[in-house]
């Protein structure tokens, strides 16, 4: 059975079952970014700051996020972003999520050009969206 980490990253993919254990087995550094509390660009940037373990000097803008995701000195050659509650975030904030997707996919393409890998893995919370 082919696993997500057997193939080069391609777009935003559904997270596999037990993504943390699987990533560890493939020596992929996995960072988790939660979107359940994101309601605007500032809270999105704060979620990225926490999830990527960035310092407070992170620029809180699209260019800064792109730079962080593509910086070979700050990121491992094999990096996975576990995007928790991402689909629901996209439904709630289509314009903001479209901008974020553009940045992440550009970073993914840039990583591939430089022999690096950036997986973007969408993982939904187990709760019923009707209760949010």
UniProtKB/TrEMBL annotation:
InterPro entries: Barstar, Barstar-like_sf
Pfam families registered for this protein in UniProt: Barstar
Entries under SUPFAM superfamilies matching the protein: Barstar-related (SSF52038)
Domain Barstar (barnase inhibitor): 30-121
Family: Belongs to the barstar family.
Name of the protein in its database record: RNAse (Barnase) inhibitor barstar
Gene source species: Deinococcus humi
Lineage: Bacteria, Thermotogati, Deinococcota, Deinococci, Deinococcales
């Amino acid at each position: 059975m082919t696993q997500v980490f057997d193939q080069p990253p391609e777009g935003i993919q559904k997270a596999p079952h037990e993504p943390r254990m699987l990533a560890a087995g493939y020596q992929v550094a996995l960072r988790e970014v939660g979107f359940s509390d994101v309601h605007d660009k500032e809270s999105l940037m704060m979620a990225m700051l926490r999830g990527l373990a960035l310092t407070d000097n992170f620029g809180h803008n699209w260019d800064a996020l792109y730079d962080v995701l593509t910086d070979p000195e700050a990121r491992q050659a094999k990096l996975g972003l576990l995007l928790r509650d991402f689909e629901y975030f996209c439904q709630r904030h289509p314009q903001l999520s479209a901008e974020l997707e553009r940045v992440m996919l550009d970073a993914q393409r840039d990583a591939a050009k430089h022999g690096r890998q950036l997986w973007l893995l969408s993982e939904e919370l187990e709760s019923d969206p009707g209760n949010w």
